[in-house]
Specification:
There is one protein chain. By secondary structure, this protein is mainly alpha-helical. Helix content is 71%, strand content 0%. The protein contains 18 helices and no strands.
Amino acid sequence: MALDLLWYIILYLYPGLGSNIIIFQYLLAQQGNILMDLFKIVVFPGLIFIGVVSLFAEWYDRKIYARLQNRVGPFHTGYHGILQPFADIIKLLAKEDIVHSGAEARSLVAAPIVALTLTMVMMMFIPVYKSAGIISFEGDLIAVLFLSTIFAVMVILTGWFSTSRFGEVGTARAGMQLIAYEIPLVLSAITPAIIVAYYYSVPIQINNVLLALGVQSTLTLAVPSQLSVLTIANITQTQATIGLPFIIVAPISFGVFMIALMAELEKVPFDVPEAHTEIVAGWQTELSGKKLALFRLAGDLEYLWGAGLAAALFLGGPWGPGWDIGLSQLDRLFGAFPWGYIFGTIWFLVKIFAIIFLIANLRTLFARFRIDQVIHGAWKYLIPLAFLNIIILQLVFYYDLFGWQTTYNLLVWITLLI
């Protein structure tokens, strides 16, 4: 009341400040939201959190990979070498940054900055402690997949800007590999959206049948749009609602996604663009110092993004058995302690490191493929498998093998009889 009176006095004395007072009032009203948004972006689950987790994930991956090969892995820097990834970044930042005379100097400097920015933005879409990430809107799955494609383009451009014979050979290999595996990655990523679309279309179908029979249904049903089913938050929340991770519904798509993800990350056996025994370091040959440090950090964030996206699309993200995602309306009303957020974060981290453990095992089991084998694997096997899984799901939905339509039909008829 006193603050409102102050605004009226100022407005009476200085009528020309009316627009400024309105803006200032809005900023005061939004101050709490602004501070909370800044905390989410910078601290948790934002840049600091994902930076720490990505470095820990690299250490975890290197330790598992080493143990499976009967090696020790990072050991001396920090407890059992846990600070080694951070020390590597600091060491590279301190090294001399060299750009040879024939390279596109400005473009080569800008490329790692753009790549790191892209991976940071991509991580903002991943749901860490609730069904939605920091950035969430209808159709955000398509947006984040588009950003991953831009990251692949930045890899190609970086090797091209270096104007090195070794960099150009590595760039040609990386371009063929990344572009080929983008297709099965996208096809397998949108498969959960197809499941969500069918699940939410069942009540609409039943309602239409009732209307055709002349039965007035009291159900108020919202028709899901194409963009709403292509939203990561809806895909994650649907798995929590039905209590079934989509890895059980679409295991082929999960397998295709994991293989395509390893190819996008250029992990063994898909590391032929960086084959050190053949072409030095591929598209990274002319990178050194700060540029290499930024690309290393961007690679760690992309690794975490891929594992997080797989966890969200196929494993339910922060949802886990016995725990709901986030807080209910009743919890918010009574100011309950956010156990749902805490356990959601724990479940999410468990799933991420389970996926990293799986990738480390696959890296150990297989030797490096030739570039022709890599490309043939995408076009001859992964893309047909991704389409096959979509066709199988359509047949499963047509014959209602999950029983969703039958169950909902029974519930509607029971409701009408009561």
